[in-house]
Amino acid sequence: MPHATHPPSPGLQALVLCGPGLSLNTFTSTPSTLPKCLLPIANRPMVWYPLDWCHRMGIYDITLVTPADAAPPLEAVLRSHPVLTSLSGPRPEVLAPKGLEMTSGTAELLRLGEVQRVIKGDFVVLSCDFVSEVDGSRVLQQWMGLNPSLAASSSSRRKGGLAVYYPTYGREGISSKKDETDFVATVPLPKPNVMLPMGIEEVVMVMPTDTLNDTLDENKQALPIRQTLLAKHGNVKIRTKHRDAHVYFLPLWVKEFVARNEKFDSISEDVLGWWAKAGWQAGLAAKLGMDEVLAGKRSTDDEGANAGSVDEEEEVDATALSSTKSAPVAVRQSPQAFATRVRTSTAPPPRPKLAVPPLLAYMQPASPTQPLIRRIDTAPQLASISLHIARLPPSDPSPLAHEHKIHPSASIGQQTRISQEDCLIAENVTIGIRCNIKESVVGPNCEIGSNVRLTKCVLMDGVVVGDGVQMVGCIAGKRARVEGTSTTGAKGSEVEVDGAAVKGKGKGKQKATSQSGGEEDDKTKLTECEIAPFFVVEAGTEAKGETMKAFDPEGEIGGDGEEDVGDEEDAE
Amino acid sequence: MAPKARKTGEPLEAKETLQAVIIADSYEDRFLPFTLERPRCLLTLANMPLIEYTCEWLASVGVEEVFVCSGNHTDQVETYLNNSRWTKDTSPFSLEVVRSTSTSVGDAMRDLDQKGLMKGDFICVYGDVIANIPFDAALKAHRARREKSKNAIMTMVLREAGDYHRTKDQHHRRCFVIDPETDRCIHYEQVRPRTSPRLNIPEEVLKDHVEIDMREDLIDCGIDIYTPDALAQWSDSFDWKLPRQDFVHGVLQDFETFGRTIHTYIVNEGYAARVNTLRAYDATTKDVVSRWAFPYCPDTNILADQSYQLQKGNLYKEDGVVLARSSTVSHRSVLGKATSIGEGSVITNSIIGRRCVIGRRVRVENAYIWDDARVGDDTVIETAVIANEASIGKKCHVKRGALVSYGVRIADGVTVEENTRITRFKRKRGYDNNEVCQGVTDPKVVGEGGEGFRLDLDEDEEYMYEAMLAGAQELNVTTDGDGISDFESGDEEDEYAHSREPTSRSGSFTSIASDESGETKRDHAKFHREASDSIFDGLQREQDPDHIQLELQAQRLTENAEDNQIRRAVAVAFSRRIANLIEGGRTAKEAVATAILPNQRLIKACVKEAGEQAEFLLFLQTDLVHRAQGSKVLLHVAFVLAGEDMVDGDGLEMWWEDPRSVATEELKKVRAETQPVVDQMAGESEDDDDEEEESDDE
Fold it and tell me: Protein biosynthesis among the record's keywords (chain A) (predicted)?
């Protein structure tokens, strides 16, 4: 997408965490050559999505944090990949802190000296696997808009944070029951004075579903909820099928907050989890050192402000200035309890020293018409999102849509059918004749033979697919090779002849050849397989639901015996 | 089971008579002492009986048939209604009073089911609901659900409130867990702050619903839409009593088996409140006066003979009010017909009924004075309730939270302490709860020439005691804004340290009957009430002690009570019996002798070892604290017990040295006179030892 206009910079900096990607290990087993953040999603490296998202909301101060061994390939790609180089604005910094391992937690990462030094103001933490059609600047506006008015209600005016949660259900083709989920409890914000926040709520409890299950097991299959929560918030909404998008708008003080609490391991579970609880669980904030972080920061603020930091802007309580809206604060403090409906006296007066800034969250409603937000951390997710993007027509308002469904530089053989509306063919792709490609993404420099049928497949860069191969729902890693009927030559032409015949007949013929001839002639049929980068799938392999990796015995089991059975089924 | 009701409930026709049930009896004691003489639904709120508000709302909703279920004071309810406009030809609905002998809402529902009066879905409300919420949508939603599934047996109509609302019951926080998609209530829990710091959400609730709302900000004023099926559910479970704790909870628990669902309809406009505690009474009155419950305000003049006019500052005056020139009546007050206010009196924030006579230089603040009450000159009345025909003398001071019941006379110059309840009647012990008898005037409370006595709450009725506390607590709040924060559970400390017991009496009891969870406490309270009632009854009828013992044993087995509970029940029963005899004109000594001597076996059966004796004495002492001539009685009891060898020296000594027996000033006072007996007995036992030793030597 062209960036015709640059929105004014909101003065935030972004940290994009380029982590390991454990669930995508078929494709990322060697991070030094192909880290997770460079895996292509719909023919763009994964890291493009968060970068582009940041750019769209006007954040250009971006730091990519990555383990040391993944840094060189990342930098190389940033310099060379056409999609990335075409991003406007300054090129993002790559930071590879020394202590950062592939296994480090996200909060641990924030505590590292190098990272701490990089953070100079309010910041956004993103994961490299974040794909979003939602306009980031709208979310950002909400965060900025809500902050002063909220913070001003207490004596210590501190900014809160904002996280994003998306529903894992209610979207055909993308939602899957197996998706990871988080447990998140929220309360509605007090009625807004000026604008209606879009789905912004305050988080009071959050934990991954795994932790929830552990808690349930410990407590006789029940989730204990503290009274104090309900005493403070009468209307708590619990969602169990939403997921943390791992996008956090955080004020500067969080840096220190994380640094102080050595036991925090991950941002999503520990930092947010404790912060959310500290808002209502009395004494917890102090225990976490929040009060000191909030108060202590104040003294250094002045220096920061002098240094031109954007952190502390003049905070104006818009509520107090409004002439049409009475400030709720004033009503609360009224000593006459009976004049108002609100039972003022029962509301415990906020303790000034422990006013915990609110942790807000944008809870995306579950509806198929909502713009997409997803995290890609499993192979099925990668496939489904790639295919979703492939389905977008070039005219789609979605920022993720590609300009060319089939790149002009692709060469396509005769009588090959490609369903334009749901396919994406990248540059320099060669496709043989009489192919049938539906709902697939074909990466750059792929070579596809003749008579190939691809359905719901994702091929990454430089995949070679031999003649007559049938693939359904497969993901093929970089430079993977799926061998076809045979090497080109006489046999290849023979197949072509077969293909030219009536379809049903052709099949029958092929079955016949497979029975009479050697195994070499067998068609390669792959269904729902994951093929690791550089892996070679031998001709005649027939597999379903397998992960094909080097030194993986499973990958080798083509199952000679199964072939015939499969063929027969197909014929029927 | 009610085959009739089921049959008739089958087809849901478009044209269906809308029926409603008013549960006129609250089956609770929270409005004691007023409810001794009148049913709660006839108490006046802003000078109109509560049931009028309820009926008015039902009429506005379009109800065509109303059944009033009454257990207690049915005659009064019936008489009132028969003379009201609801039974006239112009009444918007037909009204029928259903007499039943019910002792709980559950009984009433089962009665209804048996009678087969309900033809289809119906509204069920209490007789103390004040509401103006729109209802069509709720009814429509209910019917739509019903059409889809026969299993949607009930809809609870709840009013959304903020996190804090003054009519909300602070002691029984109700937490509804709702699936917002279907409005189904999937979990219900009633939490009592400080007793259970956690709320448990079952796993299946979390797993089966993608989104759930935990609502604690809803005002549940008991407005339900029932189906005949729900009524049948009541009949199926004979032990269900309460519509929420038992019914809703029970149905939800059986969801897996029967698939019956309960739904909620959340209203976010209009007013809805239930006057079920004194606190709620106070809050609701303020709301009505401040016009939140419009059109139910005094100046609507709902009753035919009313003539209220609204004046500046929410001041409502009826015709014929006589105000002395120098008197001041300030904002948010209501003055009934023919009430007169003397020179220099100041009325603030108060409701005064009809035909009241307020003297000169009287100060009335945040008070409720019902019809025909009299207040003498120079008296101060703070946040208190003065019932019909009560009269307060000159130069009196009625302090916060005091409740002065019907016809009580307070003599001149008397100070009524905080949170005292003064009445002329009391419940007859051991008989049907509904019967009341005149109590004996206590001049200490009402002064010479006064009439009435202090009604003590049965210390064992925790539930009721709490209710009273809630009332008093709110009354406190009205003038003392800071006081409340001590009681509210916002502070973490409060939540864990369950320590704040507001009065000494309660304090001493928790220390004795400690370590009990709320649930068992209530069971114990129930046992205690029943057991001590029956012993007292036996004593009063001078039954054979063996007979009493037998009955006690039976009760003990059914309730699975422990020994110390028996001791407590026996001690309390004796103390009551003695007090009763003294009231009858005996001297303390005679009374003790009459009560105890023939029934020695009863005491001996439960008091054997020294520790048990000490405990028994402690119970007795605690109970005697607030009985007439308590200290004298204690002396004689101790004497008799020791004389008849029911208690020995060790027991006495142990009791005397027990820190709990000197925990408060009152306790110390009551036992002061017993000192010589203890000294003597303790000395004796030592002497005994010496003698024994000597004899050993020999």
Answer: yes
Distances (CA, A) of A344 to A328, A339, A340, B192, B281: 11, 10, 8, 21, 18
| Cβ atoms of residues A245 and A150 within 8 Å | no
| Other Cβ atoms closer than 10 A to A105 | 18
Q: How many CA atoms lie within 13 A of A326 on its CB side?
A: 6
- Å between B473 CA and nearest CA of chain A: 11
> Is the separation of the CB atoms in A478 and A534 below 8 Å?
yes
Query: Strand pairing of B340-341 and B357-358?
Result: parallel
Residue B76 and residue B24: Cα distance in Å, rounded? 11
Q: If you measure CA to CA, which chain A residue comes closest to B197?
A: A227
CA separation for the pair A454, A439 (Å, rounded): 8
Name chain B contacts of A183, Cβ cutoff 8 Å: 206
Task: State the pairing for strand pair B19-23/B122-126.
Answer: parallel
Q: What is the pTM of this model?
A: 0.69
The shortest CB-CB distance from B163 to any of A232, A238, A338 is to A232
Residues of A in Cβ contact (< 8 Å) with B164? 342-344, 346-347
Cβ-nearest to A342 among B164, B197, B206 = B164
Residues B279, B281, B284, B285, Cα dihedral to 10°: -120
Give burial (CB, 10 Å; 0-12/13-18/19+) of B540. Answer: middle
| CA gap B626, B442 in Å, rounded | 12
HSE on the CB side for A381, CA within 13 Å? 20
Rounded distance between C-alpha atoms, residue A373 and residue A164, angstroms? 9
Nearest-angstrom CA–CA distance, B216 and B222? 15
Q: Examine residue B502 and say whether the peptide bond preceding it is cis (omega within 30 degrees of 0).
A: no
| Contacting residues of B for A344, CB less than 8 Å apart | 164, 481
Residue B202, number of CB atoms within 10 A of its CB: 18
Contact B20, B63 (CB under 8 A): yes
Q: Per residue of chain A (572 residues), give pLDDT as tens.
A: 444 455 556 678 899 988 776 677 778 777 677 788 888 899 899 999 999 999 888 888 999 998 888 888 888 888 888 888 888 778 888 888 888 877 788 888 888 888 898 888 889 999 988 999 888 888 888 888 777 644 444 434 578 889 999 988 877 777 777 778 889 999 888 766 555 567 888 899 999 888 888 888 888 888 888 878 887 888 889 998 899 999 999 988 888 889 888 888 888 889 999 999 888 887 888 888 887 887 764 444 334 333 333 334 444 455 555 555 444 443 333 333 343 344 444 444 444 456 788 888 998 888 888 888 888 888 888 899 999 999 888 888 888 888 888 999 999 998 999 998 889 999 999 999 999 999 999 999 999 999 999 999 999 999 999 988 999 999 998 899 998 875 444 343 333 334 333 333 333 334 434 443 444 456 789 999 999 888 898 888 888 888 888 764 444 443 333 333 333 333 33
Does residue A175 sit at the B interface (CB-CB below 8 Å)?
no
Q: Are the C-beta atoms of residues A257 and A160 closer than 8 Å to each other?
A: no
Which chain A residue has its CA at the smallest distance from B215's CA?
A: A235
Q: How far is CA A255 from CA A261, A290, B189, B640, in A?
A: 10, 11, 40, 77
| Cα A408 to the center of its chain, rounded Å | 29
Q: Which amino acid is at B159?
A: R
Task: Report yes or no: B620 and B637 within 8 Å, Cβ to Cβ.
Answer: yes
Query: Alpha-carbon torsion A130, A135, A136, A140, what sign?
Result: negative
Q: What is the ipTM of this complex?
A: 0.74
CB contact under 8 A, B492 and A341: no
The pair of structure tokens assigned to A93 is 């910094």
